[in-house]
Design brief:
The chain has a single domain, classed as Alpha-Beta Plaits (2-Layer Sandwich), CATH 3.30.70.560. The chain contains 5 helices and 8 strands, in the order βαβββααβββααβ. Strands 1, 2, 3, 4, 5 and 8 form a 6-stranded antiparallel β-sheet that branches. Strands 6-7 form a two-stranded antiparallel ribbon. Helix 4 packs antiparallel against helix 5. It starts with a strand and ends with a strand.
Length: 166
């Protein structure tokens, strides 16, 4: 199954955390494509700026198993597991954050796992890297192209491309 994922970090060494997360993910999934690296201001709280990427991966894992694996990777790389799930309701600095944004089967909801990611359509730091990789992605519940969603977004935060390759 193919998944579009987002990886971000705002604790130094930010780029190292993103690269390490991709390296670990590559042990259970084929990394098909990776966006450029973008820097953006923290969203929803005052903190250091984030580095963000999106990636297309392919794996046999179902969403629940993949999300559990991502949470273990976050913990291995220093994220406090007690705040990983609580952070859905508040924001904090983090060495790494890995989210499933979309998957090839459209929508998925079981327990606290929701695909598409419930906030993805409100975040430039997700939309811009995804559009860079594939301009014709249609949001599976909003039924709009991501470029159209980006043009309507109320997120006024800044974002810049800082590296073309990870």
């Amino acid at each position: 199954m193919k998944y579009w994922i987002s990886i971000g970090s705002n604790i130094e060494p930010r780029l190292w955390y993103i690269r390490k997360a991709l390296e670990i993910i590559s042990e259970i999934a084929e990394i098909k494509k990776v966006s450029s690296v973008y820097e953006s201001e923290s969203f929803g709280f005052e903190s250091h700026d984030f580095l963000n990427i999106c990636s297309l991966i392919e794996t046999d894992l179902m969403p629940e198993t993949l999300v559990r694996f991502f949470k273990r990777v976050e913990t291995m790389l220093g994220r406090d597991p007690k705040t990983t799930y609580a952070s859905r309701f508040f924001y904090e600095p983090r060495p790494v954050d890995i989210d499933v944004i979309f998957w090839e089967q459209g929508t998925y909801e079981k327990g606290d796992i929701v695909i598409p990611h419930p906030q993805s359509h409100r975040r430039k730091f997700v939309l811009i890297p995804l559009i860079e990789m594939r301009e014709d992605i249609v949001h599976p519940t909003l039924m709009k192209r991501l470029s159209e969603i980006l043009s309507e977004i109320e997120d006024d935060s800044w974002i810049i491309k800082v590296f073309y390759e990870i």
